[in-house]
Amino acid sequence: MQSSVLALNRAYAPVHVVDVKRAFTLLYKGQAEVVHVEDGQYLTFNFESWLELSEAKTALEDVCEWDDWVRTVTFAIQVPRVIRLLDYDRVPRNVVKFNRRNVFLRDENRCQYCTKKFGTHHLSLDHVIPRSRGGPSTWDNIVCACLRCNVRKGGRTPQEAGMKLFKAPSKPHRNPSLAHQLSSQKYSAWKNFLD
Ligand SMILES: [Zn+2]
């Protein structure tokens, strides 16, 4: 069960991404409901009615290839893509954590100098304006660079090193891992609640 479920607050604003197990626990306890988007309409289900819908879908074999299912001995239930937390009123702070992982995700593991993609072990973080010149460790001064390009650039600015940035770095609007999931058809339902 590698899928992710988008959790909304009571006002339908996205607050977290939870795993499938957590989503079903919340549903089963009645602390959340499923928000299912169909033909532009939001339909909501509690655990029992979602199970009924799942059973109907199985009977009709109305299952899309990117749907996920949890199967037990006695029943099969579809994994929801979006749930709404019924006791949660807080409005999330939309903060994207600045860390290595999120910089790599933002840059899609692409070295911003030679534009090739690498595994994370072959990548490093590069200060565009070098630290020695007062370049800060911020979203707009840090890029993903392969080890070779990083060494080549050394303590110079891209201009001095004769290297060009693939893309000017900036702070992502949303969590880069979320952006990554949004690009897949599987999570298309999330688009209704983000932006
Ligand atoms: Zn490179």
Structural class by secondary-structure content: alpha+beta
Note the overall shape: elongated
Q: Which ligands occur here?
A: zinc ion
Order of SSEs:
EEHEEHEEEHEEHHH
Helical fraction: 10-25%
What is the radius of gyration computed over CA atoms, rounded to a whole number of angstroms? Answer: 22 Å
Uncertain runs with pLDDT below 50, 5 residues or more? none
The description of the largest β-sheet is: 5 strands, mixed
Distance between the termini: 27 Å
Work out the strand percent.
15-25%
Please give the count of helices: 6
**How confident overall, as mean pLDDT?**
90
Count of extended strands: 9
- Count of separate structural domains: 2
User: If strands are numbered along the chain, what order do they take across the biggest sheet?
Assistant: 2-1-7-3-4
